[in-house]
From TrEMBL:
The active site is at E265. The keyword Oxidoreductase applies. Pfam families: Aldedh (PF00171). Residues 26-491 form the Aldehyde dehydrogenase domain. InterPro entries: Ald_DH/histidinol_DH, Ald_DH_C, Ald_DH_CS_CYS, Ald_DH_CS_GLU, Ald_DH_N, Aldehyde_DH_dom. GO terms for molecular function: aldehyde dehydrogenase [NAD(P)+] activity. Keywords: Oxidoreductase, Plasmid. The keyword Oxidoreductase applies. This is Gamma-glutamyl-gamma-aminobutyraldehyde dehydrogenase. SUPFAM superfamilies: ALDH-like. It comes from the Bacteria. Belongs to the aldehyde dehydrogenase family.
Length: 495
């Protein structure tokens, strides 16, 4: 962990105006459009970004296609791709502090978390897939009559990656690293409000030796650049993380254009289920608070619903409230801060409206529910706990993506499972119990791609990240991610 003076030395560093990265060159938007990058820390303008047009997105796709077809990367020896990707991971690691501070200034995540989850995770991800580059291959099928059937695993072509603002480097790396390791070219679209660290990442990719045109980064509006990518006939795969509403649009774009494959990592309303016989209720309370309040709840797998067995409800919730009230919310670039800024004014307003609605639907706000540190000019919200949330209330069903915990009691395991599965989502969740059978039963019955027992938020590049129900489809992370970025081709040979 760096010392505070090292962070402070970077906190006001000037950030140059940024352009689009297309075909290995930095170019302006074709109509000269620009957008301010605003910091959630204090509302100040950090720099300006090129605001691409649909035509610019098309230029990026053309550059990616040309690079793919001429084989400068797609037909490079896998071991050589591995070497370049390792160099890329080394550069991300050696620039970790710079990348983390830049990202925090742009999106407001507390620096302790950002260091681990952003450059730390991105470097580990790139390194993991670098290692895989010369280890994924085809098969020879065991045909009944011994005829030779070769099953090749091939790069697909041009991957469009569209990512959100909460963890741009981590989620960006989850898409681009396996796509590149398999030999594809990529057009990456960052979120409008958190592009700076990804633009810096593109510079590091070029420095590492990723050939021009293989990785392109286009900043701009979702409904312009993202739509142009979604409808583009020459993008083969869309790899997306973001909201369900945008995910639906991408499926429509695909259907209206070339039926490109769409892999969607969407939101969640993940249940943290605490039984009275949990081995350590204090640890469970700490994890319940961490699971919803870190990064101001702007975490796809946030444990936003706390389901507590009725017999311990009051005492357990009292402890969670106590922990919430003890958290330091403030300057995300201070190492003393537990919780940084909410990403934007719009996000903050949405969070506050969700609390108001919960109150109107019968919930009891035990703590928080308000904006704080308004004088800073930034966007901060007190960690919020709403008790007695009815399963039918909006707060029990809809993702807020803010530091708002919905608490509901349950009588037994059957009721806990029914409550847990009572939303359209199926992303994550946890069970806290000392009863091994209950742990198995509940984790098997709850719909979710990432479940925990007596812990929350376990994460590593070696394990898949996948949603069920309306939390999405397809897998990020682990070797399984290659399914998205490769095609299987069988060649029968008469000998
Ligand atoms: P969002 O859907 O608004 O934006 C995500 C990306 O889509 C951005 O780059 C945006 O510009 C782009 N976009 C917006 N409109 C578009 C359009 N019409 N066509 C094409 N692209 C468009 O989501 P957000 O607010 O940036 O992110 C928050 C959401 O992401 C939450 O719902 C959260 O749960 C989800 N998320 C999921 C995961 C996961 O792995 N499952 C991880 C992080 C965030």
């Amino acid at each position: 962990m760096p010392a505070q003076p090292e962070i402070d030395a970077l906190r006001d560093a000037a950030i140059p105006d940024r352009a689009l990265f297309i075909g290995g060159r930095w170019v302006q938007a074709s109509d000269g459009g620009r957008r301010d990058a605003v910091s959630p820390i204090d509302g100040a303008t950090l720099t300006t970004l090129a605001e691409a047009t649909a035509a610019d997105a098309g230029a990026a796709v053309r550059a990616a296609r040309a690079a793919f077809e001429d084989g400068r990367w797609s037909r490079m020896a896998p071991m050589a791709r591995k070497t370049v990707l390792h160099r890329f991971a080394d550069l991300v690691q050696s620039h970790a502090l710079e990348l983390a501070v830049l990202g925090v200034r742009d999106n407001g995540t507390e620096i302790g978390m950002a260091l681990k989850a952003e450059p730390g995770s991105a470097a580990a991800t790139i390194r993991f897939y670098a290692e895989c580059a010369d280890k994924i291959g085809g098969e020879i099928a065991p045909t009944p009559d011994g005829t030779l059937a070769l099953v090749h695993r091939e790069a697909i072509g041009v991957v469009g990656a569209i990512v959100p603002w909460n963890f741009p480097l981590m989620i960006g790396a989850w898409k681009i690293a396996p796509a590149l390791a398999a030999g594809n070219s990529v057009v990456l679209k960052p979120a409008e409000s958190a592009a700076l660290s990804l633009l810096r990442l593109a510079e590091l990719a070029q420095e590492a030796g990723i050939p021009d045109g293989v990785l392109n980064v286009v900043t701009g509006a979702g409904p312009v650049v993202g739509e142009a990518m979604g409808l583009h006939p020459d993008i083969d795969v869309l790899a997306f993380t973001g909201s369900g509403a945008t995910g639906r649009r991408l499926l429509e774009y695909s259907a209206r254009s070339n039926m490109k494959r769409c892999y969607l990592e969407l939101g969640g309303k993940s249940p943290n289920i605490v039984f009275a016989n949990a081995p350590d209720l204090e640890e469970a309370a700490q994890a319940a608070a961490n699971g919803i309040f870190r990064n101001s709840g702007q975490v796809c797998i946030a444990g936003s619903r706390l389901l507590v067995e009725n017999s311990i409800h009051d005492e357990f919730v009292r402890r969670v409230v106590e922990i919430a009230e003890g958290l330091t919310v403030g300057d995300p670039l201070s190492l003393d801060t537990d919780i940084g800024a909410v990403h934007s004014q719009a996000q903050l307003s949405g969070n506050l409206a969700a609390v108001d609605k919960a109150r109107n639907e019968g919930g009891t706000v035990l703590t928080g529910g308000k904006r704080i540190r308004e004088d800073s000019g930034g966007y901060y919200m007190a960690p919020t706990v709403v008790d007695r949330v009815a399963p039918t209330a909006a707060l029990a069903r809809n993702e807020v993506f803010g530091p708002v915990l919905a608490v509901t009691g349950f009588a037994d395991a059957d009721e806990a499972i029914a409550l847990a599965n009572g939303t359209d989502y199926g992303l994550s969740g946890a069970v806290w119990t000392a009863d091994l059978s209950a742990a198995h039963r509940v984790t098997r019955a709850v719909k979710g791609g990432l479940l925990h027992v007596n812990t929350y938020g376990g994460s590593d590049i070696t394990v898949p990240m996948a949603g069920m129900k309306q939390s999405g489809n397809g897998v990020d992370k682990s070797m399984h991610a290659f399914e998205k970025y490769t095609d299987l081709k069988t060649v029968w040979m008469k000998l």
